[in-house]
UniProtKB/TrEMBL annotation, chain A:
Keywords: Acyltransferase, Lipid metabolism, Pyridoxal phosphate, Sphingolipid metabolism, Transferase. GO terms for biological process: ceramide biosynthetic process; sphingosine biosynthetic process. It comes from Sander lucioperca. Its cofactor is pyridoxal 5'-phosphate. Residues 119-482 form the Aminotransferase class I/classII large domain. This is Serine palmitoyltransferase 1.
Automatic annotation (TrEMBL), chain B:
Its main location: endoplasmic reticulum. The gene is sptlc3. SUPFAM superfamilies: PLP-dependent transferases (SSF53383). It is a single-pass membrane protein. InterPro entries: Aminotrans_II_pyridoxalP_BS, Aminotransferase_I/II_large, AON_synthase_class-II, PyrdxlP-dep_Trfase, PyrdxlP-dep_Trfase_major, PyrdxlP-dep_Trfase_small. Keywords: Acyltransferase, Endoplasmic reticulum, Lipid metabolism, Membrane, Pyridoxal phosphate, Sphingolipid metabolism, Transferase, Transmembrane, Transmembrane helix. Its cofactor is pyridoxal 5'-phosphate. GO terms for cellular component: endoplasmic reticulum membrane; serine palmitoyltransferase complex. It comes from Sander lucioperca. The chain crosses the membrane at residues 22-43. This is serine C-palmitoyltransferase. It holds the Pfam family Aminotran_1_2. It comes from the Eukaryota. GO terms for molecular function: pyridoxal phosphate binding; serine C-palmitoyltransferase activity.
Amino acid sequence: MFMLLTHSQPCFFSFYTNNINMASGQQWVLVEMVQAFYEAPAYHLILEGILILWIIRLLFSKTYKLHETYRLTEKEKEDLIEEWQPEPLVPPVSKDHPSLSYDVVTGPPSHNIIINGKECINFASFNFLGLLDNERVKQKALASLKKYGVGTCGPRGFYGTFDVHLELESRLANFMKTEEAIIYSYGFATIASAIPAYSKRGDIIFVDEAACFSIQKGLQASRSFIKYFKHNDMEDLERLLKEQELEDHKNPRKARVTRKFIVVEGLYINTADICPLPELLKLKYKYKVRIFLEESMSFGVLGEHGRGVTEHFGVNIDDIDLISANMENAVASIGGFCCGRSFVIDHQRLSGQGYCFSASLPPMLAAAAIEALNIMEEDPDIFTVLREKCKHVYTALQGTPGLKLVGVQFAPALHLQLERSSGSRDSDMQLLRTIVEYVSPTRGVALTLARYLEKEERFLPSPSIRVVVTIEQTDQDIQKAVSCIQEAASAVLK
Amino acid sequence: ATSGCRTGVASRQPRQESFEQAPMYVAVMTYLGFGIVTLFGYLRDFLRAVGLEKCHLAQEREEQKDFVPLYQDFENFYTRNLYMRVRDNWNRPICSLPGPVFDLMERVSDDYNWTFRLTGGTIHNAINMGSYNYLGFAENNADFLKTVADKTRQYGVGVGSTRQEIGNLGIHEELEQLVANFLRVESSMTFGMGFATNSMNIPALVGKGCLILSDELNHTSLILGARLSGALIRVFKHNNMHSLEKMLREAISSGQPRTHRPWKKILIMVEGIYSMEGSLVRLPEIVALKKKYKAYLYLDEAHSIGAVGPTGRGVTELFNVNPSDVDVMMGTFTKSFGAAGGYIAGKKELVDYLRSHSHSAVYATAMSPPVTEQIIRAMKCIMGKDGSTEGIRRIHKLAENTRYFRARLKEMGFIIYGNDDSPVVPILLYMPGKVVAFAREMLERKIGVVVVGFPATPITEARARFCLSAAHTKAMLNQVLHHMNEVGDHLCLKFSRLKYSSCPNLHDEKDFELGS
């Protein structure tokens, strides 16, 4: 007991604990403590006293705030609020901005289109199967109008599900030979809602550089890591996948929960060429990555029955996790759909934002889509005919002076780019615009420039003219168009 | 008809908005209910894992079993164990026009809601209290729809191109003129989808270096548009002007975080009517704040355009605010006009900028022609341009229905949220079991209602949401009220502790502008 008095620790603490072990009575502890207090050296007591006072001071002083010195006075705040001037809500747009003046189409945008008052042959609308003007489709739409009116007045969850929607979904699933399909009321929103439903923050998406804008918006909304690989370059993609595999080995716990996706398009809208699907599938199984395929341009175009790029390559459709397409091109209606296995698609019914929080597709547009599917199923020859015409246009447009044709020969929407760029995008666009205006309306062939948002695109494609082949174009029409373009090109691009 | 007296040009006092709190025991029972269901959920998961219960969920492919799982188990806990048991109350298919009465398709489940089977039967003439059909334009009267049928025959249904390329039809320009006239602004632009109007145009207006002050209860499309824009988002408490002003002062005086550079723009985003609460925005106060602090105002009138205001022009007319004070007026055509799509209206510079820089104008297909024609004819009807008083009659009928329905429900003792003028009527049910029982019971009595719970609403405030329509007759409303009374007593849903008198307030009649 007395040995503890010379111990370096505060003597009465150790004294007290020691006394607990001794199990003496209460009064013994008190007497011993007081005795120890009297017998302790003075410097020890003084040191203890100072420590206690310091602790008390720290306990009661204010915490040190880093921004204490930055707090503004009321007057300073008022001054800052007075002085602050915001930018105008929108920057001024000059009157002759090229995107400001729209061409006005009076009358239906079908094979013979009236632009700005002049009648032309339509080489610019994505009406691949000519169903925009089809009588059967219109009759079905009218019948639906008589029964259901126009709008659905609600999202799918709240009495916006009509029997037409259920029928269209099952028809699409049957047509594509998948388990389930889900429809959206707007083509752009389809892939832009599908990607964020599966891929969240922390997941990794490998996407082709030439992906269209709606895919880019879907990627942005998902907040995942995006890795771009060069257009159609499987070696570049494999390199990225290998790098990721090395990362995964370093951190296997994280890799077990990080989902990985590849997003590609069947036929790219920006470059009119096809993705190498068999190689992609090999990479899928080798590196365990899921594939999302965007088939807006190839649905109703490629494949023996028009089922798209999977039928074109003879690939088992179950190997693709999700196929998304819009119904605004070949199907000539409005909206979009995703199809695949129920395991994948059913998830979008609760997490697809464009599906849950938006009104459903108007029934007359769904009825028109069903009739278009009927026509596609009854007559699979139209796809072969369309591809023949595409080939015809492709070969005919080769060798246009000053312009090069971009795309594969069975793509229905081709691009004509300048062979030699003048250096600045604006002057390139001006040249191409002059060609388009030369050709239509005076010569009677309607073409259009491919439009992009220059500041928003990640990999801005070169300026080009869109040439769209539809099944309604006769050989004469194609002949006329090609000669007009060649004439215009040689006149403008001397 | 005699012309009633208006309250002059002074700004209209907003009516009472009530958000009565339920008694404490209700909150306790709600949490208890959720707790019990969660426990059962865990039990079921365990049984499924052990193999005692059949797993109904779709499974991953054999070939892909070694891929990283597409869904994490805990993400889907709520869906698997809570939502699945009660999901027969949503996604109910109908096979008729979504008018004041509709036909529901009979749907049964043999395995507790995992799969559904349509029996082929129909529930005829159920009263529709769920569709957004405020002015009753969801109709299939051949006379009214004559122009729409003509346009379908002339144009077809698709367009096949974007607005900037070759999809700009003359009919689109006609619609935009009409919308600008209707809203009393300089010009407007229309888009094919209401949700996409927000998500594609907010990024075009604001970007990095800007600040968005968004109301707590804003719709998903506004939140998505704000996120995609890259601006900093701060949320202020619902309809709370103090919170908003405090945030404005803080933001302007301290600038952007970390660098303290001044903000490029500040955009306040609010909605006209908040559809889950039924509350109206406090527009005059927000406009005053916006002018004082030089911010911009984005008003989303998805539910309020056509549904409020003496001539259906929305909250600007209701509160007597000059439409040019609101910088960006946005709305949708799905609700009051019975069509689809959205619009943005305002000054000519704004709309010109959107014509050249909006994502929708460049990449998304233009609006379908028959849908455009439906909006044109509905708008002409509301404005009176078709030579009849049908539009005004409908607006008055909607206001009358709203007043009557709300007053009677309050009398009965239900807790109703929101402003007395809003045609969206949320009735609080609180407990998860009651929510489901209510929906099923009303279906038995041939009334289609919409119920919403977590996560669309706070966890303790599950509710049923009624959407009134100008097409509802007094008889229909009385039938609904009668059944509500019975079901309310049966399920003990009358939580209100306030007393409401049954005779209408005379003061209310003065603000009611009678026919032309």
